[in-house]
Amino acid sequence: MTTPFGSYELTRFPEDPRDRLRAWDAADEYLLRHLDSGTGERGPVDLAGAGQITVLGDRWGALATALAAHRPTQITDSYLTRAATEANLKRAGAAEDAVTLLTTQDAPPERIDVLLVRVPKSLALLEDQLLRLAPHVHAGTVVVGTGMVKEIHTSTLSLFERILGPTKTSLAEKKARLIFCTPEVAAGGAAPEAPAGGGWPLTYTLDRDAGSGAGLTAVNHAGIFCADRLDVGTRFFLQSIPNNTAGARVVDLGCGNGIVGTAVAVADPDAEVVFADESYQAVASARATYEANVRSGRRDRAEFLVGDGLAMLPAASVDLVLCNPPFHSHQATTDATALRMFAQARRALRPGGELWIVANRHLGYHTHLRRLFGNSEVAASEPRFVVLRAVKREKRPRPM
Asked: How many CA atoms lie within 13 A of 73 on its CB side?
């Protein structure tokens, strides 16, 4: 990536030489050009004397890496983004403490002088984070957002306007736009209080058609897929997952709000359940869902992991992996994440352990499972979704 601040070799995380998706796009480039030259309607930003710079929603660390000399703070919901940022900073030769890395669950900086926002896919997450950051901006805070044209809608601009202040957009360049927002201040120059709203986390009760999840309470922080209702894929999965775990060590992989793993824990109090996701919002939701449904005396049977899938778990350490894999990475459609999850599951499973997944039928994951596990069978199906089961077989010794 070539910018006014230098040229950088950037990669996504985990690194894969076969991955054709870049770690930056035209929206990142547009914002960085603007910061240097004042592209469009606003003048250049004096980053050297700007004070505290906060970067929200950086996809793979492109913005934080380019601005590392100005010691920004990055706020992200993604462990993979954080890992990519660390790797890209190291590759660029930045000092270890050049960028302060925070998650969406951490307290933001006390005072923000420049707020750079990479518009996320989730409007709810954008709303939640702007509400969290609003009390920390002031009359002089420079607020600039960026995103591809297809990511910026009237509702996006309305959020900036409602939460921070008057908002308008730039002309499009290479199918990317900038968002300019001027924070409103109360009389006397004080920063306004963040407006009430959002209502996060959201809570709802699963109905009787939710299989093993019927009657459970789901808790969702902003940014979780289908946060206000049970999505149809998970509903079908809950109607199909095994109910004979018998004290097994079970993983809810890509746990989201954790309702699948919680259903296992409620049905089998002796089960050990690991909730794993790369989203800090998701794991916080899973913990809240678990605690809302499991008696306090049984809560020591759960583990909550934010990370790269099951990479942190020892090999051959679990009995059952349950997974509703994603097929998007931000706006890109890809099966790379799902295939990595399947490979991690095989490594983490004990011989005889099982991987159960639910997926859209057209994705054809059965072929990948057969290649990886040597077997795959349909455990349940309906016109749109299919539940697949794969078993990790014992390794057979080679004949002498």
From this structure: 19
Could you report the per-residue pLDDT of 232-253, keeping only the tens digit for each? 999 999 999 998 899 999 999 9
One DSSP character per residue, 346-378 reads: HHHEEEEEEEEEEEEGGG-HHHHHHHHHS--EE
CA 200 to chain centroid, in Å, comes to 16
Torsion angle of C-alpha atoms 298, 299, 301, 304, degrees rounded to 10 = 170
Can you give the pLDDT at residue 227?
86
**DSSP state for residue 310 in the 8-state scheme:** T
Write out pLDDT tens, residues 117-171: 999 999 999 999 999 999 999 999 999 999 999 999 999 999 999 999 999 999 9
* Backbone angles phi and psi of 41, in degrees to 5: -85, -15
The CB density around residue 299, as the number of other CB atoms within 10 Å, is 12
The pLDDT value recorded for residue 228 is 87
Question: pLDDT tens across 12-32, in order?
Answer: 999 988 888 899 999 999 999
Q: In this structure, what is the dihedral angle of CA atoms 237, 239, 245, 248, given to the nearest 10 degrees?
A: 30
pTM for this one?
0.93
Cα–Cα distance, 285 to 262 (Å, whole number): 11
92-129 b/e (C-beta count within 10 Å ≥ 16 → b): bebeeebbbbbbbeeebbeebbbbbbbbbebbbbbbbb
Give the C-alpha distances (Å, rounded to integers) separating 86 from 71, 117, 273.
Answer: 14, 19, 30
Contact 126, 120 (CB under 8 A): yes
Task: Count Cβ neighbours within 10 Å for each residue of 259-277 and write b for 16 or more, e otherwise.
Answer: bbbbbbbbebeebbbbbbb
Mean pLDDT, to the nearest integer, of 353-371? 96
> What residue type is assigned to position 93 of the chain?
G
Contact 76, 82 (CB under 8 A): yes
What is the token pair recorded at 16?
């894969």
Burial class (CB in 10 A: 0-12, 13-18, 19+), 42: middle
